[in-house]
């Protein structure tokens, strides 16, 4: 925690967990044994130890939204996110510049002072133990041997009203001077020693100091100490019988030590006479819990632990009834950030399709958030609630969705691709023409990580492109759009592989039933989305020899397979005099053509093979293609097609 906002996020998250635990514990007060009553506090301890909002997740309540809404309302600042780096306050590297900075300094100072107080209290107790007199340990060893418990050094201290264990790694049993300790008191303390309950006291004291200004967590700290004592009582009673149990209840009042109450690193955890009375009442109704209740208790704790520790993601941007404003909606967008690069591309594309600024805020760098919030505030004041700066050359056809062409990881955690969306009508001054189906707008994008967020950085403006067959076969190669190109030359031919990919997050929703079904495009971003990728290729041969020598070629064929780095050249089938072609899901292809009159009269370009396939996930580009070239039914060359520099994102 480096500022007041990260502290609020951490302490509010813990408070929500604490409130739920208190409610559940109240419901199961007489149903769960003390062992499980105390174990349930482990859930709160883990929530306190885990930085709130880790991985963009929250427990129970979307606290990140409320913290960001408060930040926006109080500071007008959108270019930051409350981030909990550590569950403890960390010193700021810059001097305080605002009242909020001074408030965080006050909180940090309070936590430091309380920690110092606890340290001094523990040091004073250890010093008193050093000055104490060694105790007669015969009775202690007798109790330990009877109940098979460990022992530790024991000393007598003047002014101590009750026995206690002090220390975790070098524990010492402190006894009141001048009085013989009752066997049951010794049993109680030796059980504290066996289960290292002093360590739990340290944990409770630590969280009490860190969250000193949160009264709910202080209450939980007191109750956790009470439950630890009740658990020790339960362990004592399980070892006693008949009248000894009643005697244990009577002597319990003598075990309260207000001088060292809740001293860190000790087993002295009395919280006043009220708690003592509750413990005595629990002893009076002591019962051995059936074994079956252990399974029930495990189920109760797991049902609580899973949603509290795993949390959930904010997966949609929406207005909140308590904060119905443009700023609140932008706060919701900032906290519903993208955790995958596919989710970031998806959010950006849908922001463009819907012309909706909050969707852009989900995947925009923090440095751009203030400008986006100001633009959205202006739109809200005008009642348009849109985005004038989407940059499209025309109105997007939302029903067609989007595609990210030629997606590639250019370096670790940096992806680039070409966003393409179909337009409802040609751009101004353009027409559909006779040979083209539709117009598309394309823009080069880069996705990279900004902390735990994936953000999108446009690499230029939109361009308008005519794309034939856009609505029907978006996953196949389009000559109008860029492609990865691989080439090699042999005999009188250049063999060229033209490869394209298109990726998108599945967003189609089917409505209706039976014969009355329809599919619509869901424009809600999926910040945790994954890509579905379609891959298409086209293999050509381009004649480079003397046109007068074309006649010596009567058939041309190829077989091809992608080569990954470190992969040996595979053995490929001979297509012989095949007319036609095919492909496989592993990227291999084959095909052939008989060269007739059209060949003699044409420009020398021969289509040999092509096709496409789809799969979940992103396929890395092959380093090269292995191709066997067959001329007139015989193997003419074994080629390795290498990528050309201009392929991928650039238009011809």
Model description:
The chain is α+β, with helices and mostly antiparallel strands and 652 residues long. It contains 17 helices and 22 strands. Strands 7, 8, 9, 10, 11, 12, 13, 16, 17, 18, 19, 20, 21 and 22 form a 14-stranded antiparallel sheet that branches. Helix 4 packs across helix 13 (326-335) and helix 14 runs antiparallel to helix 15 (357-363). The longest helix has 33 residues, at 99-131. The protein is elongated and about 120 Å long.
In DSSP terms (H or I, runs of 4 or more residues), the helix count works out at: 17
- The counted number of beta strands is 22
Shape, principal axes of CA atoms: elongated
Low-pLDDT runs: 471-477
Tell me the structural class. alpha+beta
Mean pLDDT equals 82
Query: First CA to last CA: what distance?
Result: 52 Å
Largest sheet: 14 strands, antiparallel
Question: Helix fraction?
Answer: 25-40%
């Amino acid at each position: 925690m480096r500022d007041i906002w990260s502290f609020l996020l951490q302490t509010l998250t813990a408070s929500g967990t604490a409130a739920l635990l208190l409610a559940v514990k109240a419901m199961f007060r007489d149903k769960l044994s003390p062992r499980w009553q105390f174990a349930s506090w482990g859930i709160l301890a883990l929530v306190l130890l885990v930085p709130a909002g880790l991985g963009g997740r929250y427990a129970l309540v979307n606290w990140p939204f409320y913290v960001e809404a408060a930040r926006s309302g109080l500071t007008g600042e959108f270019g930051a996110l409350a981030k909990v780096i550590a569950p403890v306050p960390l010193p700021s590297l810059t001097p305080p510049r605002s009242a909020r900075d001074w408030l965080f300094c006050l909180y940090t100072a309070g936590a430091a002072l309380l920690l110092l107080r606890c340290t001094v209290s523990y040091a004073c107790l250890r010093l008193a133990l050093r000055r104490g007199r060694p105790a007669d340990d015969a009775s202690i060893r007798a109790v330990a041997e009877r109940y098979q418990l460990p022992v530790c050094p024991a000393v007598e201290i003047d002014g101590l009203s009750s026995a206690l264990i002090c220390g975790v790694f070098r524990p010492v049993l402190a006894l009141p001077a001048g009085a013989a300790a009752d066997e049951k008191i010794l049993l109680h303390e030796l059980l504290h020693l066996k289960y290292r309950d002093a360590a739990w006291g340290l944990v409770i004291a630590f969280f009490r100091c860190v969250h000193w200004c949160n009264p709910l967590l202080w209450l939980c700290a007191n109750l956790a100490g009470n439950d630890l004592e009740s658990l020790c009582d339960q362990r004592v009673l399980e070892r006693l019988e008949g009248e000894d149990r009643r005697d244990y209840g009577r002597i319990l009042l003598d075990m309260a030590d207000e001088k060292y109450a809740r001293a860190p690193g000790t087993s002295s955890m009395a919280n006043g006479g009220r708690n003592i009375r509750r413990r005595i009442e629990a002893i009076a109704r002591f019962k051995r819990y059936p074994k079956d209740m252990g399974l029930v208790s495990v189920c109760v704790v797991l049902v609580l632990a899973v949603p509290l520790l795993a949390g959930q993601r904010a997966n949609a941007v929406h207005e909140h009834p308590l904060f119905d404003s443009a700023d609140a909606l932008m706060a919701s967008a900032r906290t519903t950030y993208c955790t995958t690069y596919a989710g970031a591309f998806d959010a950006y594309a849908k922001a463009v399709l819907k012309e909706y600024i909050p969707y852009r805020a989900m995947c925009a760098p923090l440095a751009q958030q203030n400008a986006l919030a100001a633009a959205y505030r202006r739109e809200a004041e005008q009642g348009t609630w849109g985005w004038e700066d989407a940059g499209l050359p025309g109105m997007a056809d939302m029903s067609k969705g989007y595609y990210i062409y030629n997606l590639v990881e250019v370096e670790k955690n940096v992806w680039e691709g070409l966003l393409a969306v179909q337009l409802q009508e040609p751009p101004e001054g353009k027409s559909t023409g006779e040979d083209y189906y539709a117009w598309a707008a394309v823009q080069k994008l880069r996705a990279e990580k900004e902390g735990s967020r994936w953000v999108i950085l446009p690499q230029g403006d939109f361009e308008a492109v005519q794309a034939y067959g856009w609505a029907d076969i978006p996953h196949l190669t389009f000559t109008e759009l860029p492609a990865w190109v691989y080439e090699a030359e042999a005999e009188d031919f250049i063999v060229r592989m033209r490869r394209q990919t298109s990726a998108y997050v599945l967003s189609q929703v089917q409505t209706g039933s039976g014969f009355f079904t329809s599919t619509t495009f869901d424009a809600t971003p999926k910040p945790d989305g994954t890509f579905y990728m379609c891959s298409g290729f086209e293999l050509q041969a381009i004649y480079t020899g003397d046109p007068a020598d074309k006649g010596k070629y009567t058939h041309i064929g190829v077989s091809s397979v992608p080569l990954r780095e470190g992969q040996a050249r595979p053995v490929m089938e001979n297509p012989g005099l095949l007319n036609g072609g095919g492909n496989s899901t592993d990227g291999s292809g084959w095909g052939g053509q008989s060269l007739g009159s059209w060949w003699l009269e044409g420009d020398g370009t021969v289509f040999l093979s092509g096709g496409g396939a789809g799969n979940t996930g992103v396929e890395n580009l092959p380093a090269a293609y292995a191709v066997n070239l067959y001329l007139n039914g015989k193997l003419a060359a074994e080629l390795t097609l290498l990528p050309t520099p201009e392929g991928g994102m650039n238009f011809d």
